[in-house]
Amino acid sequence: MSSSTMVIIGGDAAGMSAASKIRRECPDTHVIVFEKGEHISYSACGMPYWIGGVVDSDRRLLVLTVDAARKRRGIDVRTHHEVVAIDPVRREVTVRQLGDGTSFQQPYDLLLIATGASPARPPIPGLDLPGVFTLRSLSHAQQIYHFLESRQPRRAVIIGGGYIGLEMAEAFRDRELEVTVVEMLPQILPNFDPEMVEEVAAHVQQQGVTIHTGTRVTAIQQDNPGLAVVTEEAGTLPADLVLVATGVRPNGELARQAGLRMGQTGAIWVDDHMRTSDEHIYAAGDCVEHYHLVLEENAWIPLATSANKGGRVAGENMAGGDARFPGILGTAVVKVFDYTVAVTGVTEQAARASGKFGEQGEWVGSAVITNDDKAGYWPGAEPLKVKLVFDRRDGRVLGGQLAGKAGVNKRIDIVATAITARMTVADVGMLDLSYAPPYSHPYDPVQICANVALRDVGR
Amino acid sequence: MSSSTMVIIGGDAAGMSAASKIRRECPDTHVIVFEKGEHISYSACGMPYWIGGVVDSDRRLLVLTVDAARKRRGIDVRTHHEVVAIDPVRREVTVRQLGDGTSFQQPYDLLLIATGASPARPPIPGLDLPGVFTLRSLSHAQQIYHFLESRQPRRAVIIGGGYIGLEMAEAFRDRELEVTVVEMLPQILPNFDPEMVEEVAAHVQQQGVTIHTGTRVTAIQQDNPGLAVVTEEAGTLPADLVLVATGVRPNGELARQAGLRMGQTGAIWVDDHMRTSDEHIYAAGDCVEHYHLVLEENAWIPLATSANKGGRVAGENMAGGDARFPGILGTAVVKVFDYTVAVTGVTEQAARASGKFGEQGEWVGSAVITNDDKAGYWPGAEPLKVKLVFDRRDGRVLGGQLAGKAGVNKRIDIVATAITARMTVADVGMLDLSYAPPYSHPYDPVQICANVALRDVGR
Questions:
Q1: Least confident among A409-423, B38-52, B161-175
Q2: A449 part of the active site
Q3: Which range marks the domain in which residue A440 is found?
Q4: A435 with B45: Cβ contact below 8 A
Q5: What count of CB pairs under 8 Å joins A to B?
Q6: Residue B355 scores a pLDDT above 70
Q7: What ipTM does this complex have?
Q8: Residue segments in chain A with a per-residue pLDDT below the cut of 50
Q9: Long-range contacts (CB closer than 8 Å, 24 or more residues apart) made by B355-364
C-alpha cells in the first residue's frame, strides 16, 4: 500500500492510533487526518480531573499535538476540517474547511471512519440555555472550566449518574460547589448490579452530593440569576450550572449516508478486521459496534480502550497487515470519590435479560462476597466487594464486578483475562495468583468469590 | 468415606485446609491432625510485619486457634504430637507425644503428609550460637521478637537476600537497627532477572541497608558482647543479631522412609489429585513438588498459595471427591520497603536454562518497558517496570516480572492468568482491560510491554 493515500475521518484515539500505525508500517503512505475540532489525541478521560483541579493544566491532557503528529510522525493532520460526505464509488470524501466554509473533494485508496460519539441530547427543553453543558470534547471541558472560573457558580445539577456524571460530581465537589445528581433509573451507575452500588451511593452522599434516583428531568428553565431543573419526582432544583451527562450516541451518519451496513445497535458494523461492508472503508472507535465475547453478538460499548485497539487493528490492516480485533468485554473502572468500582463482562441483570443463558435467565448464577482487600491484620485493610456472574451449567465466568476503597482496579482485569480465556469459576479458584499480606490473601478475594460460586455449578 | 479415620501430619496451611475440607464434605469422618509445634494455621507471611511493628500482636497472625478448630470445625487437633514414622502396609503412623516422650500407633484409612519445609542450614560454623536465628515458624518469630525486646540489639546481619531476607531487613529497619544483607549470588532477589532488581537494590540501600552481593559467609563467631559474621569477600561483619534466611528445604524424610516416590526436586512426588505413589497417602504443601505450567515438569516452589490450594484438593479427594490441582506458576509478590516486586512463570534466565525453548534458549524472547503506573498527568504516578518473557516462535507468554512503587501487585496476576490460559503476547495486547486515569493507561503497561514483545515474535 505504499504511495497510496489513506484518509482518516477523526483525529482522536482510534483515528490517530490508526494513522500512527500506518505510518510506522508503511512510511511511504500519505496519511491525511481530517479533524473538525481543534485538538487531536487528548485524554478525554482526564478532563474531569482538570476541571476539578487534580490535574493542573489542560495542556497535560494532550497526548499528541498537531505539530508533533505532523513533524514527528509525518501524519498530514488537518484540524477544523469536517468531512461532510463519503462517496464509496468514486472513493472520495467531501471536506469542508470550517475556517472559510469552502469545500473540496479528497480521493482515498482506503478510508477510516473514526467519527466517535456525541453526547445524547435527551428530549428536555432548555438544553441550549447558557450554563447548560455537556462534556465530551476538550472544547466542552474548556467551556465548563471557563464558566467555573468566571462565574463562580455555587450549585451544580448533574443529569445522569453514570461514569461521567459521578466523576464530575467529584470534580465539582473538589471546587466546593453544592452538587445534585439526578438519575432517571432506580440507581446510579446503572451498568452495575444494584447490590454493588449501595455502599458507593451512600459514600457519594456522605461527600455532600444529593442524589435523586428514579427521577426524570422534564425541563431546564432560566431562573434569574440561575437555572432551574424541573423534575417530576424531586420538584424543581435550583442550579447555577447544569451538566447533561446522559450518555453518548455513535456518530454513524456519514457511514449511513454512504450506504454502509449499520449494526443493530445503531453503530457502524465492522468485521473482526475493523472493515465495514465496503472493502475500502474501515471504521474504529466509538462509532462502531464490537463483538462481545460473552454475549457472542455485537454490542456498542464506547470506551477509550477499545478505540485505541480498534484503531490500531484498522491501521495495521490498512497498511496491508492481517490483524484481528478479538472482541470486547466492556471492562471499565471508575473512581467515585474514595471508592473504586469496576465491571467486566455482563452483569447478572444483563445476563438474564440477554436470553443467552436460559429463556428466563435460569442458568445465570451469581456469587457476592465481601472480604478485606489485603490481610485483615494489615493496617488500612478495606472491605472489598466482589461479584461473579457465571453459567450454572458449566461454571463459565460471564462477568465480574468489584467495589471498594482499595484493591479494585487491577483485580477486575484478572476477571477480564479469565473471561477472555473462557475460564470457569473452578479454574479461577485454582489460578496461581500472587499473595503477600500487604496486598492480598492466600486466596485472592476474586478466588474466594469463585469458590463460593462453585457450590452452585452443575446443580 | 464416612466413619473412617483421616490422619493429617502437620497443622499449617495445607494440613488445616485439607482437614476443614474433609469435615465440610464428610461430617462423619474422624479427622486427626498431628502438629508437633504449638500453633496451627497462622500467617507465616505476616511474621516479619509483627516483628517490625506494622502488626501489633502475634495473636493477629493466628488464622484458626486450636480451640476453634476443635469446637467449630470438629477437627481433632493434637499439638505437640510428632509423627515419627509411617507404616504404609499396616496403614498406621507412629506418634510421639512431645510432652512426656511416650509414643503410640495411630491407624488411618487415608493419610495426608503436610509436613512443610524447614530452613536450609548452610554449612556455616556457628549457626547454633545465641543470637543466630532462622524464621520459619511462629515460635521462631517469637524468639526473634523476644530477643529484640530484651536485648535491644543494634546491628543485624541477614544472610540471604531473598523474600524473607528483604522483608526482615525492612522489619529490622523499622525497629531502627543497622542492617546488612549478605547474599552469595550476584544479586538480591535471585529469582528475578537482574535488570528487574537494580532499582530495588538501590532503593534498599537508600533505606540504610548495606548489601553485599556475591559474598559468601564462612563462619559466624562469638565476638563478645556480640557476634561476628565472617565473609570471604566483605571481611568480618559485626552483629548483635544474625538471621539466616537462605531458603528452605522440603520435609520429605517421613515420606522417603515410608518408601514413597520422591521427585527429582527432592520433594514428595504427587499426582494431579495430590496423591502420592501410595493410594492411601496424599501429600500437600511445602513438602511436595507441583506441576509447573510453563516448564511442563514438576518443580518445587514452596508458597502459601499452593499449600492452601493443594491442601484443599487433597481434602476434597480424601473426602471422596474428584478435584484436580492444575499446576503452579510460582507467582509471588513481595514488598521491599516502598517498592513492590512480583514474578510469575519463568524468568528469562530460567527459561534459557531450562532447555525447553531451544537447546541454547534461542527461542526465549523478552521485552522490558518502563511506564507510569497510571496516567502520566496523575499526581503521584510512579514508574513501573514490566518484563515479559515469551516463546519467540509463537509468542506464548512464559513469564512476567514487575517492579515499582505502585501498581505492581494485582497486575502480575493478569500475567499469571494469561499464562495459565496459554495466551500469546498478541492475545495480551488485545485483552479488554480496565482504564481510568487514576489507575492505568488506555493500554495497560502489561499490554504496552506485550506490544513491544510482539515485534520479536515469529522472526
A1: B38-52
A2: no
A3: 338-454
A4: yes
A5: 210
A6: yes
A7: 0.96
A8: 1
A9: B356/B295, B356/B296, B357/B391, B357/B398, B363/B391, B363/B392, B363/B393, B364/B389, B364/B390, B364/B391, B364/B392, B364/B398
